[in-house]
Write a structure and sequence with these properties.
5-stranded mixed beta sheet, 6-stranded mixed beta sheet, globular, alpha+beta, 32% strand, 5 helices, Fumarylacetoacetate hydrolase, domain 2, 235 residues
C-alpha cells in the first residue's frame, strides 16, 4: 500500500560522538522545583512524603530545535517565557508494569539540557478558565535541546546544576539535588501511565527565575561544564 502523502522525517537529536537519537515522544514535568512552583503561585511540598503526584504534559516530537539554531518567536503570544531543564533520553523500552527505581534508572541512555519554551499568556488564560493549556506548551520550536551526552560522561546528577543566561546575564540557576522528583522517580510515575520506549525524551522541570524573551535575545543554557545549548530568539 502506498502512502497518500510523503512520510514526515523522524526528528533527531545529535549525540556526542557522532550518532543521532530519533525522538518518539517528549514528556515534560511541571512544578518539579519547589522555588518555581512557588513563583507560579502553587504550593510546594515540605518533604518527599508530601509530594503527591507529579504534573505531566507533552510536546510534539517535532518541536525540538537542534544545532544551536535560531528559535522563531511564536505566533499567538505576547509573553514567551524560558524554562531551562535537564533532559533525559531513554535508550531502552521499559518492561510492562510499574518500574522499580533501579529498572527506571537503567532506561536512561543520555542527558542533555533543554528549554521548555512557554506561551505564558495563553497558559495563564487557559488555567484561569480551568481548561487544558496545550497551546501554551506544545507549539512549533518550543523544545530547543543540546546534543545528548552519554550517562557515563555526565557522572552523578546530584552534583550538577542548571544555568540559563540571557544576553550574558544569569536568569535561572538551580541544583539538581533540589528536584522534587528525581529521574528514577519520574520514570516510575510515567510508567504507571504510559508505555515508555527507546526514543522518549523527558524534560525534567525548571528552577525559579522564568521570565519573558523578546526577539534578539541570545540564550546560553548549560548543565555545568558537561553540555551547553545556545540560541537566539528571532522575529
Amino acid at each position: 500500500m502506498t502512502d497518500l502523502i510523503p512520510a514526515p522525517p523522524v526528528p533527531r537529536v545529535p549525540v556526542r560522538g557522532g550518532a543521532t537519537f530519533p525522538v518518539r515522544r517528549i514528556f515534560c514535568v511541571g512544578r518539579n522545583f519547589a522555588d518555581h512552583a512557588r513563583e507560579m503561585g502553587a504550593s510546594a511540598p515540605a518533604s518527599k512524603a508530601e509530594r503527591g503526584t507529579p504534573v505531566f504534559f507533552h510536546k510534539p516530537a517535532d518541536a525540538i530545535v537542534t544545532g544551536d539554531a535560531d528559535v522563531p518567536y511564536p505566533p499567538g503570544t505576547q509573553d514567551l517565557h524560558h524554562e531551562v531543564e535537564l533532559v533525559a533520553a531513554l535508550g531502552t523500552d521499559a518492561p510492562s508494569g510499574e518500574l522499580s527505581r533501579e529498572a527506571a534508572a537503567s532506561l536512561v541512555l543520555a542527558y542533555g539540557v533543554g528549554l521548555d519554551l512557554t506561551r505564558r499568556d495563553l497558559q495563564a488564560a487557559a488555567k484561569a478558565k480551568g481548561l487544558p493549556w496545550d497551546t501554551g506548551k506544545g507549539f512549533d520550536h518550543s523544545a530547543p535541546i543540546s546534543e545528548l551526552v552519554p550517562i557515563a560522561d555526565v557522572g552523578s546528577l546530584e552534583d550538577r546544576t542548571l544555568t540559563l543566561r540571557v544576553n550574558g546575564e544569569v536568569r535561572q540557576h538551580g541544583a539538581l539535588h533540589d528536584l522534587i522528583w528525581d529521574v528514577p522517580d519520574i520514570l516510575q510515575e510515567l510508567s504507571k501511565l504510559y508505555a515508555l520506549k527507546a526514543g522518549d525524551l523527558v524534560f525534567m522541570g525548571t528552577p525559579a527565575g522564568v521570565a519573558a524573551l523578546v526577539p534578539g535575545d541570545t540564550l546560553t543554557a548549560s548543565l555545568d561544564d558537561v553540555v551547553t545549548l545556545q540560541g537566539r530568539i528571532v522575529g
